[in-house]
Every structure is written in C-alpha cells, then in structure tokens.
C-alpha cells in the first residue's frame, strides 16, 4: 500500500532508474513540480512525518525546508558535491547528509581530459566548421599541442588525483592542495604559483567558503596568454566575470567549462566566445555511473530507514 511507504521530498528530476527505485520504496512529494499552495499543504500534512529529502548536488537543501520537516532524518544527495547544504545547520537538527562519492570519479576525470583536448585541438569548432559546410572555404586556425604541456590540478582529492594520473603520460603534472601529498607530482604551495607554472589549469577542488572564487583575475593573469582553464569542480570556485574579462582581453588562451555559477544560465559572453568549450554539467553523465550513483542513494535511504547511519555520510 502506498500509504505504508515512508514519506520523502524529491527536489529535482533524476534518471528513470533512480526515479523508479525511489517510487518503489517511498511516497514522493515532487517539490519541483508543485506550486506554493501545494507545498504549504504538504508541509502542514504529510511533511510532519517526512523522514527523507532526496536531492542533487547542484540543488542541495535550503535551511528553511530542513526546519519545516520536523521528522527529517536524511538529506540524500545524488552527487558528490554537498556545498548546497548547510552542514552545521543540518547537524544541529540531527539530520544526516549523504552523497555518492568514488563512483563518479572516473567519469569526471575522463571529461576533464576530454575538455583539455577539445579546447587545445579545436575539436568543437572543427565539428561546427564541417557541419556548416565551410571546409571547402578554408582551413581553421591551428590548434595547440596537448602532449608536452604542463598540467596543473587545483585540488588533489579523489577526482583531482584521477585527473593527474590521466595527464601524467602526456606531460609534467603539478598540483595545489592544502598540504603536500606523497605523490609523484610537482607541488605548488599557492594557487598563484600553480597558475604561473601551468599551461593547462584544471579546477578539481571542492566548493567551500574558502574556495569561493578561488580562481580570480589575479590567478588568471598568472596563467597567462598561452594558458587555458578547465573547470569540472563547481561554478562557485571560479570568478566567472574574471574569466570573461580574461578571454575578451586575450589574457588567457581559452576556457573549457562544465560547471557555472548560476546553472543552467550561462553568460552570453562565454556562449559566444570562440575560445571556449562548454558542456552542461555532465561530469558524471554516463549510464553506468548514474546507475551506480542511484544505487548509493538507495543504499543510504534504506540504511537510515532501518535505523542505521548512511553508508556514505558526508564528513
């Protein structure tokens, strides 16, 4: 019986695979499909017994919603990022937060490398050139060589390390993190030192208050006119207007971005730039990884409903 299922708030759309798995186990209130009146009615009724919020890393869960759900036990994030959840606030309310780490590492690292090659070799512009029937009219400008570049990785967590491993066969790898690690890569003690050292700067650090707009105008100046920026982390880590200014003034050679400050809105200047490659936050967007992420979401939900801690709690 549907009424016997635990109540849950769903804050965004998921894959059919995860949607079906959630619907089998939960009475779902699809918050994103409802108007203000329906949401208020839910909170006054079923919301009082709601134990779960299921959300995406790009959505998180607002404090006012947490406070409106007195029985809330878990915010289950379908994604690795948890910067859109106020962890101290959730903890003070006794609400656990889980995410889906590890299973998306390979895909995000693969995309980062793909963006590097696409940007430096002009793959996206070449595709447009051929499809538009312009090949017979002339050749495109020459691209830049990838092999032999210096690859700087900003943040050497799971994903950053996987990116570094992929870049290492093609050139020298450097990195910045809060502390030096026991790895065979060149350590830079500041982000500015890393930018100055790098030909390609790949942003892979977590989004935190400390890393907000870490990639700023001063850092881009150090990256230099031949340098390129790649971001597969979070839009908040990069000062988007500084990137626009650096591209327009040719202060950097290009930018490949999978994430943006105000998704899904992307500044017109970035969309129209000839020196950008842009993708719609698809770092984990493969069939295999989205299924593995969904399995972790369900495992966390089932663990908490059984009275146990989540399988992959956010530290």
Automatic annotation (TrEMBL):
The keyword Acetylation belongs to this UniProt entry's keyword annotation: no
Record carries keyword Oxidoreductase: yes
Domain D-isomer specific 2-hydroxyacid dehydrogenase catalytic residues, every copy: 48-314
Record-linked Pfam families: 2-Hacid_dh, 2-Hacid_dh_C
Any one GO MF annotation of this record: NAD binding
Domain D-isomer specific 2-hydroxyacid dehydrogenase NAD-binding: 113-283
Keyword line: NAD, NADP, Oxidoreductase
Gene Ontology CC, one term: cytosol
Residue ranges the record marks as coiled coil: none
InterPro entries on file: D-isomer_2-hydroxyacid_DH (IPR050223), D-isomer_2_OHA_DH_cat_dom (IPR006139), D-isomer_DH_NAD-bd (IPR006140), NAD(P)-bd_dom_sf (IPR036291)
Entry similarity comment: Belongs to the D-isomer specific 2-hydroxyacid dehydrogenase family.
UniProt-recorded name of the protein: 2-hydroxyacid dehydrogenase
Organism: Aurantiacibacter rhizosphaerae
């Amino acid at each position: 019986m549907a009424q016997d299922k635990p109540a849950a708030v769903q804050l965004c759309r998921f894959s059919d695979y995860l949607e079906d798995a959630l619907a089998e186990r939960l009475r779902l209130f699809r918050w994103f499909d409802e108007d203000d009146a329906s949401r208020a009615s839910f909170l006054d009724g079923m919301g009082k017994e709601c134990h779960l919020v299921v959300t995406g890393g790009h959505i998180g869960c607002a404090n006012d919603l947490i406070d409106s759900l007195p029985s809330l036990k878990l915010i289950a994030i379908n994604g690795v990022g948890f910067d859109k959840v106020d962890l101290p606030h959730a903890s003070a309310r006794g609400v656990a937060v889980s995410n889906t780490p590890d299973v998306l590492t390979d895909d995000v690292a693969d995309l980062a490398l793909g963006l590097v090659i696409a940007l430096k070799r002009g793959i996206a512009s070449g595709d447009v050139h051929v499809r538009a029937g312009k090949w017979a009219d002339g050749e495109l400008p020459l691209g830049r060589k990838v092999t032999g570049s210096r690859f700087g990785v900003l943040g050497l967590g799971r994903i950053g390390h996987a990116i570094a491993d992929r870049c290492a066969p093609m050139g020298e790898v450097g990195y910045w993190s809060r502390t030096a690690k026991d790895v065979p890569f060149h350590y830079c003690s500041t982000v500015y030192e890393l930018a100055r050292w790098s030909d390609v700067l790949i942003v892979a650090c977590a989004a935190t208050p400390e890393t907000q707009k870490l990639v700023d105008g001063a850092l881009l100046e150090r990256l230099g006119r031949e340098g390129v920026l790649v971001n597969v982390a979070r839009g908040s880590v990069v000062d988007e207007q500084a990137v626009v200014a650096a591209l327009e003034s040719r202060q950097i050679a290009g930018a490949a971005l999978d994430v943006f400050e105000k998704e899904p809105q992307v500044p017109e200047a970035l969309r129209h730039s000839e020196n950008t490659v842009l993708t719609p936050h698809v770092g984990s967007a493969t069939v295999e990884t989205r299924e593995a992420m969904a399995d972790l979401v369900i495992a966390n939900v089932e663990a908490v409903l059984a009275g146990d801690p989540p399988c992959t709690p956010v530290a």
